[in-house]
């Protein structure tokens, strides 16, 4: 019995001991979270300083003073500790940022505001580390950005040495408690860096150009204000004279040319007499007339195509929304919230938003075709009726109100080609002279487009490079876009409109792939239109062949790469497919067909009501299925091939119905909304808004002191602010570059026509 009792007592003691070991407070050290909370602990740096190290003497002295003060509870030392990055919650929910606060590190030194300040200056560094914690918590190596506020006597190399020395201590703690974890410092960089924008030659060049333009705008505005005032006074004098004589004045009866000029001026938002060429060149930068032209809401008399304004404006808003989400995703401290957001059915409107750019392509193809054919009809009518050139309305007028004057400039140079072609006898082929004239017309058309688009484009490229260079130097984040390098090396690709033919990693302003595609489509479209003047059937067959070949090429590339479209990775095939012209030309060609149809029918089409009843639901079903059809979040290989090839053309077909129905009077409330007069000025600003809005996003987001906490409501609020800022910046850029370029082209083209008439 005694032996039995002793056995049970011994067993009880052993169980108690084991139980005590398991539940003791020392076991907390085995917690993965406790281990991560102990990372980058400044209190432990005293052990490193007491051991073997190679820190500079001044840095070591300041660090010892800081750590001793920290252990003594001095406020200034606590502020340095508080400004440095430590463990931050949400690491298991995607947090990659333990940034502390650069602003706090700078602010704590201000002796004029605080009684206790450090006895040495402080500086801020951001270290990039790789962190791994067993196979469950952080199974894949996660790059972390950690901010450190330290004495300014410590260089980035000294801090890197200190963090490297911490790795052995941290690894030892993990091994002691059986945690399979690693902590590796990759590099350390100061924030801000050494870049001085005021000493950048490109800043001087861009600043000088802006100064010249601003001064030119000021002088032109003052001069035009003086001319408008003189013109109003003259009108008042004529009116008073007419009232005194109780009959029309000779000035009102005789000056027919002046009346025509005044009517043209009203069309151009100019409220003054026409001046000489050099005066008009000066006045082309006037804020008064350019501002009225951009902000005018007056619908034109032949405004059948005004629905395109709303389509263009809504598409730009869609683009800005998508880019807002992508920007916030990148700087959020709860990146797994992106996965949660992507599970939402409505998020497909972000993941499948590539179709918003297809709307731009569709509109471009439609407008180029309509403007080309209208010019052809005008010149043919003028030649047949032998009307003097002055009897025709200004070709640069805002035709149909669906395009600002910038969009109508590209058809000016067709006059000579059409007049010469109409003089030639009709034949099945082309003579040598006709080929030369067509070639000349093509290059002049292309030159007009380049001259119209490039000034604003080049300015934004320069602005973007400087803004991103400054941002990379001052940000605590690590932006994925390196435009400060790419724009410095490859800006010429953008100005040649070939940047979409190069890898994404080497692209300046990645979003400008649209500009390259649209210009390349314009080249193809103009060639087809020039051919259609004499051989419409051949042009149509060629268009269809181009369309079918684009489908076949896209399907081949997609299947070759075994591409499976996913909501989570909309840009996975950016280089092979996303930005390539052979996968994007479909909507442009559909737009050309619609433009030809609307021009030939003069928008006077009687559509049966049964077709209206079928057409609208069909168009809406196509749009909805393309955006929200990826119910499972992905497609297999062959459905993906069909989706990325024919899908873009299908989007153009849906827009084709909307355009035809709205222009021909079957749009109802949809046409009323899309054609709302308040959208006209916003539509004119979409080009520059598209160019500049990512620069605004990156500059404002990456200069934050720390990460954002992702939430849909917050993203939508930020999106609204970005949209407003983009259109305000667009208005300024349009006033300074786009509108003056358009007016200068008009002056040049008018001079060419006058010279030709004299000859």
* Percentage of residues in DSSP E strands: 5-15%
How does the helix and strand content classify structurally?
mainly alpha
Radius of gyration (Å): 34 Å
Strand order of the largest sheet: 1-3-2-4
**DSSP, total strands:** 4
Helix content: 55-70%
**Number of helical runs?**
31
Principal-axis shape equals globular
Major sheet: 4 strands, mixed
Low-confidence stretches: 1-29, 248-267, 388-425
> How far is the N terminus from the C terminus?
134 Å
Mean pLDDT: 84
Task: Walk me through this protein's architecture.
The protein is mainly alpha-helical and 759 residues long. Helices cover 65% and strands 5% of the residues. A four-stranded mixed sheet has the order 1-3-2-4. Helix 25 packs parallel to helix 27 and helix 30 packs antiparallel against helix 31. The radius of gyration is 34 Å and the shape is globular. The termini are far apart. GO terms for molecular function: acyltransferase activity, transferring groups other than amino-acyl groups. It holds the Pfam family Acyl_transf_3. Keywords: Membrane, Signal, Transmembrane, Transmembrane helix. InterPro entries: Acyl_transf_3_dom, Nose-resist-to-fluoxetine_N, O2_lipid_transport_reg.
Which properties best describe this structure?
5% strand, mainly alpha, 4 strands, 31 helices, acyltransferase activity, transferring groups other than amino-acyl groups, globular, single chain, 759 residues, disordered N terminus, four-stranded mixed beta sheet, membrane
């Amino acid at each position: 019995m005694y032996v039995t009792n002793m056995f049970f007592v011994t067993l009880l003691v052993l169980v108690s001991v084991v139980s005590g070991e398991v539940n003791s407070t020392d076991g907390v050290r085995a917690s993965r979270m406790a281990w991560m909370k102990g990372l980058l602990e400044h209190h432990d740096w005293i052990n490193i300083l007491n051991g073997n190290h190679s820190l500079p003497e001044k840095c070591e002295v300041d660090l010892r003073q800081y750590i001793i003060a920290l252990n003594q509870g001095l406020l200034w030392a606590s502020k340095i500790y508080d400004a440095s990055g430590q463990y931050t919650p949400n690491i298991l929910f995607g947090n990659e940022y333990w940034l502390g606060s650069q602003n706090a590190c700078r602010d704590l030194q201000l002796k004029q505001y605080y009684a206790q300040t450090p006895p040495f200056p402080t500086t801020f560094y951001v270290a990039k580390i790789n962190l791994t914690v067993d196979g469950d918590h952080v199974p894949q190596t996660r790059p972390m950005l950690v901010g450190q506020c330290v004495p300014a006597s410590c260089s980035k190399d000294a801090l890197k040495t200190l963090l490297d020395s911490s790795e052995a201590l941290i690894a030892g703690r993990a091994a002691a408690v059986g945690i399979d974890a690693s902590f590796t410092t990759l590099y350390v960089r100061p924030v801000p860096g050494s870049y001085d924008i005021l000493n950048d030659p490109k800043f001087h060049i861009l600043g000088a150009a802006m100064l010249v333009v601003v001064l030119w705008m000021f002088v032109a505005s003052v001069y035009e204000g003086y001319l408008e005032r003189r013109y109003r006074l003259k009108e008042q004098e004529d009116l008073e004279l007419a009232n005194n004589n109780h009959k029309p004045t000779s000035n009102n009866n005789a000056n027919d040319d002046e009346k025509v000029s005044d009517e043209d001026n009203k069309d151009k938002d100019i409220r003054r007499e026409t001046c000489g060429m050099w005066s008009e060149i000066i006045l082309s930068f006037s804020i008064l007339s350019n501002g009225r032209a951009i902000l005018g809401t007056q619908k034109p008399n032949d405004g059948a195509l005004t629905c395109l304004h709303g389509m263009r404006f809504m598409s730009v808003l869609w683009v800005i929304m998508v880019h807002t989400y992508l920007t916030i995703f990148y700087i959020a401290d709860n990146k797994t919230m992106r996965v949660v957001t992507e599970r939402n059915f409505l998020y497909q409107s972000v993941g499948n938003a590539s179709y918003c750019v297809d709307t731009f392509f569709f509109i471009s193809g439609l407008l180029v075709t309509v403007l080309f054919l209208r010019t052809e009809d005008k010149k043919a009518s003028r030649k047949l009726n032998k009307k003097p050139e002055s009897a025709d309305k200004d070709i640069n007028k805002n035709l149909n109100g669906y395009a600002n004057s910038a969009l109508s400039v590209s058809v000016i140079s067709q006059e000579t080609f059409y007049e010469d072609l109409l003089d030639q006898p009709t034949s099945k082929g082309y003579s040598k002279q006709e080929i030369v004239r067509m070639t000349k017309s093509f290059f002049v058309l292309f030159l007009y487009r380049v001259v119209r688009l490039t000034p604003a484009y080049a300015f934004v490229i320069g602005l973007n490079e400087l803004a991103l260079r400054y941002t990379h130097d001052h940000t605590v984040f690590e932006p994925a876009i390196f435009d400060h390098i790419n724009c410095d090396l490859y800006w010429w690709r953008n100005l040649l409109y070939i940047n979409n033919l190069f890898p994404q990693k080497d692209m300046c302003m990645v979003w400008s792939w649209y500009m390259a595609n649209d210009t390349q489509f314009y080249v193809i479209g103009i060639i087809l239109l020039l051919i259609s003047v004499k051989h419409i059937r051949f042009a149509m067959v060629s268009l269809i062949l181009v369309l079918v070949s684009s489908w076949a090429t896209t399907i081949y590339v997609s299947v070759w790469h075994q591409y499976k479209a996913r909501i989570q990775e909309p840009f996975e095939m950016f280089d092979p497919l996303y930005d390539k012209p052979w996968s994007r030309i479909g909507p442009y060609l559909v737009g050309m067909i619609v433009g030809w149809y609307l021009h030939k029918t003069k928008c006077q089409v009687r559509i049966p009501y049964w077709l209206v009843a079928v057409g609208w639901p069909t168009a809406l079903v196509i749009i909805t299925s393309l955006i929200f059809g990826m119910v499972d979040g992905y497609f297999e290989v062959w459905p993906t091939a069909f989706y990325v090839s024919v899908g873009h053309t299908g989007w153009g077909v849906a827009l084709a119905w909307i355009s035809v129905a709205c222009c021909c009077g079957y749009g109802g409330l949809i046409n009323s909304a899309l054609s709302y007069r308040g959208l006209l000025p916003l539509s004119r600003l979409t080009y520059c808004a598209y160019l500049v809005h990512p620069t605004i996003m990156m500059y404002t987001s990456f200069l934050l002191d720390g990460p954002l906490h992702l939430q849909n409501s917050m993203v939508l609020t930020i999106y609204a602010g970005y949209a407003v800022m983009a259109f305000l910046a667009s208005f300024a850029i349009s006033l300074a570059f786009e509108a003056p370029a358009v007016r200068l082209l008009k002056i040049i083209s008018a001079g060419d026509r006058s010279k030709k008439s004299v000859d």
